[in-house]
């Protein structure tokens, strides 16, 4: 497979922060790569560098002559008054029928295709931009946080599109479920270095932790050996009969060094407000209608939420999830009906736009002290800042210089320093990296109060939600099933729509030849050979995995340093063989 982009010895820094420090990577045709890293690690800078929009201080980026990049940017590319169809024709130079055909893959039709594109929601505009990318026939898609603000239905459509896209893709995302569903490779940027792993994100995170734990055990074994040698040297170097042995041991000690454990940036740990658990009905809606003076979004809402629930608000973009949340926290007046909260309710709110409304003149610490309750000490503020990765000099950074992800973490820290027994959260995971989203899910899972939230991150929803409330077609009601059931129902609806579209397209196409050609038979034979090799590789990978686990278990129990070093070498050899087999399996799987 040809190398589309080759990056060698890339260096880039902003002030004291090193973003790229000798980073190297190859992006190969037909591979879909999930790109991860902490907020502020330099992912967007790296994308700009390989696009030529950002200069490296040192290093080179080489493009294959046939490279055609389709880059999904976050900015608005639309002109005033134009329709989605007008934009697609202008962007691609293709005729209207071709633009309409590609737009259909993203369910763009009727008013969504022919009405003003600027009147569409962010999710529908993303569908239009994706159709525009596809019409330009790229062989490398670069998507920067494509799932931000996308509803579940659009995310699944994008997944289906990427699975059927038979070219390369580089996808920056904090959404583990999305990366797992679309990418066979994982690329991480940490401490200025790029690490490519031949496997999806879950396997990579597991592999990374196994590698770190293994390095810790080896270091512990080496340290024990060093102490043993040092004791021998101290005891015998003054004795004439054993001095030569002591000198020999000293040389051995010099050669015996511990390795640097590959640790990531500080681990995120988040705690939710400490509250007393309560029981019974927390909130009741009776005949409630929500919306705006000129537009009713949903009516006749009969809804109850119990203390201790973690209620996920679901529905397509534009159906009214945020309108419902705004009404619940009294920032929007109901059109009619009743909404009543239980006695002693203290609500803490986090909204999509909250991080943009911070006072830019305050420092991190000043903001937390301002937002926290009267009983919170400065030490409490520093502890929470540290938990969300604002440490050392970072606590004195002005809000105006913080990244979007840092501002989101700061807002979340302020909320968690309070005493709210009800948290109303609108997209709390947007702009947070994978580790921070996971830590937030852990905190909310252990929270003794009530959570009412929206999120487009399926992994987060599955971790946190105890019940589901659906906003759809002008109504709001409890969904009779868990989030997994809701997810399956949306998948089924999309699959049915795709079958109907394919059936309609098939009717418009001329009938093919009655029998298969010799090329078809040859391809069928090749497929059988490929399938056989894949099965053999799967057996080999399973066997090597078992051997590796067995050796790791032996290493954990081994107290003899010499035997431990031998086990370490065996594990290293098996790991190398395993990675080679996995790379071949992934290569064959892409073509099977």
UniProtKB/TrEMBL annotation:
The keyword Secreted does not apply. Keywords: ATP-binding, Nucleotide-binding. Pfam families: ABC_tran (PF00005), ABC_tran_CTD (PF16326), ABC_tran_Xtn (PF12848). Residues 5-223, 283-498 form the ABC transporter domain. Gene3D superfamilies: P-loop containing nucleotide triphosphate hydrolases, Valyl-tRNA synthetase, C-terminal domain. SMART domains: AAA (SM00382). GO terms for molecular function: ATP binding; ATP hydrolysis activity; DNA binding. InterPro entries: AAA+_ATPase, ABC_tran_C, ABC_tran_Xtn, ABC_transporter-like_ATP-bd, ABC_transporter-like_CS, ABCF_ATPase, P-loop_NTPase, Val-tRNA_synth_C_sf. Residues 497-511 have a biased composition (Basic and acidic residues). It comes from the Bacteria. Residues 494-535 are annotated as: Disordered. The keyword Nucleotide-binding applies. This is Putative ABC transporter ATP-binding protein YheS. It comes from Stieleria bergensis.
């Amino acid at each position: 497979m040809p190398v589309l982009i080759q990056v060698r010895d890339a260096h880039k820094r902003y002030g004291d922060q090193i973003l790229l420090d000798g980073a190297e990577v190859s992006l190969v045709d037909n591979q879909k790569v999930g790109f991860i890293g902490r907020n502020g690690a330099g992912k967007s800078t790296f994308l700009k560098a390989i696009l030529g929009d950002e200069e490296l201080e040192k290093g080179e980026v080489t493009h294959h002559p046939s490279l055609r990049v389709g880059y999904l940017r976050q900015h608005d590319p639309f002109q005033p008054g134009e329709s989605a169809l007008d934009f697609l024709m202008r962007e691609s130079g293709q005729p209207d029928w071709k633009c309409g055909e590609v737009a259909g893959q993203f369910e763009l039709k009727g008013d969504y295709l022919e009405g003003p594109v600027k009147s569409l929601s962010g999710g529908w505009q993303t569908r239009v931009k994706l159709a525009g990318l596809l019409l330009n026939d790229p062989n490398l898609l670069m998507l920067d946080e494509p799932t931000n603000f996308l509803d579940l239905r659009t995310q699944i459509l994008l997944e289906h599109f990427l699975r059927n896209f038979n070219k390369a893709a580089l996808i920056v995302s904090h959404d583990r479920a999305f990366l797992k569903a679309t990418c066979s490779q994982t690329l991480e940027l940490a401490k200025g270095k790029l690490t490519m792993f031949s496997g999806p994100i879950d396997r990579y995170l597991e592999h990374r932790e196994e590698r770190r734990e293994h390095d810790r055990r080896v270091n512990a074994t080496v340290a024990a050996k060093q102490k043993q040698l040092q004791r021998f040297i101290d005891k015998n170097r003054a004795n004439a009969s054993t001095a030569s042995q002591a000198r020999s041991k000293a040389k051995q000690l010099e050669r015996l060094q511990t390795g640097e454990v590959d640790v990531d940036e500080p681990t995120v740990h988040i705690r939710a407000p400490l509250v007393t658990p309560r029981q019974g009905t927390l909130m009741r809606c009776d005949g409630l209608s929500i919306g705006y003076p000129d537009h009713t979004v949903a009516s006749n809402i009969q809804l109850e939420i119990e203390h201790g629930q973690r209620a996920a608000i679901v529905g397509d973009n534009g159906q009214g999830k945020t309108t419902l949340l705004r009404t619940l926290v009294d920032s929007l007046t109901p059109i009619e009906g009743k909404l009543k909260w239980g006695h002693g309710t203290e609500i803490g709110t986090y909204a999509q736009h909250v991080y943009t409304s911070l006072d830019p003149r305050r420092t991190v610490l000043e903001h937390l002290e301002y937002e926290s309750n009267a009983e919170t000490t400065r030490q409490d503020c520093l502890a929470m800042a540290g938990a969300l990765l604002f440490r050392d000099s970072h606590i004195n950074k002005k809000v105006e210089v913080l990244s979007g992800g840092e501002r989101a973490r700061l807002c979340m820290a302020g909320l968690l320093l309070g005493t709210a027994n009800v948290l109303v959260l609108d997209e709390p995971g947007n702009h947070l990296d994978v580790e921070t989203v996971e830590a937030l899910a852990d905190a909310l899972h252990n929270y003794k109060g009530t959570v009412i939230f929206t999120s487009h991150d399926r992994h987060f929803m599955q971790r946190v939600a105890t019940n589901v409330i659906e906003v759809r077609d002008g109504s709001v009601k409890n969904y009779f099933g868990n989030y997994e059931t809701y997810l399956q129902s949306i998948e089924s609806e999309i699959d049915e729509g795709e079958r109907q579209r394919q059936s309609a397209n098939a009717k418009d196409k001329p009938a093919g030849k009655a029998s298969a050609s010799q090329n078809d038979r040859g391809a069928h034979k090749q497929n059988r050979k490929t399938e056989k090799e894949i099965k053999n590789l799967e057996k080999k990978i399973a066997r090597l995995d078992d051997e590796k686990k067995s050796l790791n278990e032996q290493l954990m129990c081994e107290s003899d340093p010499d035997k431990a070093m031998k086990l370490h070498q065996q594990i290293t050899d098996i790991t190398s063989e395993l990675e080679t087999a996995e790379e071949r399996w992934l290569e064959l799987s892409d073509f099977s």
